[in-house]
Amino acid sequence: MLVFTLTMCKDMTKPKRYKYSSQRQKIISILSGARIHPTASMLYDEIKKDIPNVSMGTVYRNLKVLIEQGIVKKLDFGTSSDRFELKRDPHHHFICKVCEGITDIEIPKDISLIPKLEDSYNFSIQSCDMVFYGVCENCKNKETKENK
Q1: What's the confidence (pLDDT) of residue 5?
Q2: 89-148, which class in CATH?
Q3: Among candidates 75, 86, 85, which has minimal Cα distance to 8?
Q4: In b/e form, how buried is each residue of 24-62, taking b as 16+ CB within 10 angstroms?
Q5: Which of 4, 15, 82, 88 is the most exposed place for a label (fewest CB within 10 A)?
Q6: Measured distance CA(84)–CA(87) in Å, rounded
Q7: Across-strand partners of 70?
Q8: What CATH number belongs to 1-88?
């Protein structure tokens, strides 16, 4: 799990001349402890518990800054809302078509796939994102119980 300290957050805001903000620190804190990939609305609800006067616009502006800084990644998989996560080592995602939950998937790199594609198509591949779609364990269990 990636953890950003207060000092790290302050240091990360310096290169692009952004002042430190408690709202940005709170977003980082929430994302670093999140098991899910929250929407902006979910982040807003969580931040509001500690910073009652925060607005949804403030959350969106701070997410934009964190994305520009390369700290946060916006995930747009065609679900009803964009999701957010801290940038970390490359990984893939599973999206449940029932609840729209997103789960990180660690897959060992198949080192032969990228060179084969590069040779076949004369590409220079920089990165790869795979997304798997299906039904998560919780939704499968609910479906099984409902069918009994």
Answers
A1: 56
A2: alpha beta
A3: 86
A4: bbbbbbbbeebeebbbbebbbebbeeeeeebeeebbeeb
A5: 15
A6: 9
A7: none
A8: 1.10.10.10
